[in-house]
Specification:
Helix content is 73%, strand content 0%. With 315 residues, it is mainly alpha-helical. It folds into four domains: 3-93, Annexin (Annexin V, domain 1, Orthogonal Bundle), CATH 1.10.220.10; 96-165, Orthogonal Bundle (Annexin V, domain 1), CATH 1.10.220; 174-246, Orthogonal Bundle (Annexin V, domain 1), CATH 1.10.220; 249-311, Orthogonal Bundle (Annexin V, domain 1). It is elongated, with a radius of gyration of 21 Å. Keywords: Annexin, Repeat. GO terms for molecular function: calcium ion binding; calcium-dependent phospholipid binding; phosphatidylserine binding.
């Protein structure tokens, strides 16, 4: 294993991310090595460098590369690499907010909408971060994200998605929210608007207390309650939101269990510097197999090595 791997890996202890700032960072040296590697179509070197640097460090490398060569690094990667590895390396080169905007656009482009990916991003990102993503979306695609989401969804599910995009925190009593949600369940059909309003306008600590109190009062899990009282897309949306409130790492691990490559890469790239260690731990508990081992069963070659480097190690 490359010594750089261990230097970077050691930096990850005590954090929730797997990719940490690379010590003794020398962007000029990295840019030179990548330039030579791209000329020789040497994927190993490109993977070694880009997966052992944080996104902020990658941005410095890309800028240095452009100053050195008068060429765009992403364009160089496109010319020298191919297939799933090329896509992964290009994703690593996108700034985080740009990448999330890109994922949202990809979830809505073409026939059909990937509702689960929309929910994943909207449910796991803060209101402040989503405002940044919305601004980036408009800059990149010249379209308003809220209007795009409204056009791709309908009914209560649309109301949920738009509320998530504009989520904010308001201080309200926990017991009041418990009583309000409980009362909404007494009829044949629950009031989706009330659930959407409460679950998208409180902080996670408050909502966990509300959900715990509701479960005690009703004698069943919130998931069971949602299954009985809601139907269709809004039921799925509320269930995802509740999972993300209770434990986003578990929700994302569940997404990874049978994930196709775009979803797996989306989660891995998005969360490598944030909470991938939590997702790994949840994945191991869910499946009895480490994510590191699962990747080896599904992928191969340089693409596998890049994914393993982001995952970092066996649990």
């Amino acid at each position: 294993m490359d010594p750089e791997y261990f230097q970077s890996h050691n930096m990850s202890w005590g954090t929730l991310g797997t990719v940490r700032p690379f010590p003794n960072f020398h962007p000029e040296q990295d840019a030179r090595e990548i330039r030579t590697a791209l000329q020789n179509k040497d994927a190993v070197t490109v993977v070694r460098i880009l997966t052992n640097r944080t996104n902020a460090q990658r941005q410095v490398i890309a800028q240095t590369f452009e100053e050195m060569t008068q060429k765009d690094l992403a364009v160089g990667v496109k010319k020298a690499m191919s297939g799933e590895l090329e896509i992964l390396l290009l994703e690593l080169l996108m700034p985080p907010v740009q990448y999330e905007a890109f994922r949202l656009q990809q979830a809505m482009v073409g026939l059909g909408t990937d509702e689960e990916t929309l929910l994943e991003i909207l449910c796991t990102r803060s209101g402040e971060k989503l405002r940044e993503i919305s601004a980036m979306y408009k800059l990149l695609f010249k379209k308003d994200l809220e209007k795009e989401l409204r056009g791709e969804t309908s009914g209560d599910f649309s109301n949920l998605v738009l509320a998530l995009l504009n989520k904010d925190n308001f201080a309200v009593g926990v017991q009041k929210d418990i009583e309000s949600l409980s009362a909404s369940l007494n009829g044949k059909k629950a009031d989706a608007a009330l659930w959407i309003n409460i679950l998208t306008s409180r902080d996670s600590d408050h909502l966990n207390k509300v959900l715990d109190g509701l479960e005690l009062q009703r004698g069943q899990t919130v998931d069971q309650t949602l299954d009985k009282k809601f139907t269709g897309d809004v039921r799925q949306g509320l269930k995802v939101l509740v999972q993300c409130i209770q434990n986003p790492g578990v929700y994302l691990a569940k997404r990874l269990v049978k994930a196709k490559t775009p979803i797996l890469q989306g989660i891995t790239v998005s969360h490598a510097e944030e909470d991938l260690l939590c997702i790994r731990a949840a994945f191991l508990k869910l499946t009895g197999t480490s994510l590191y081992t699962a990747l080896q069963k599904q992928y191969k070659g340089d693409h596998l090595q890049a994914l393993l480097a982001l995952c970092r190690s066996e649990d």
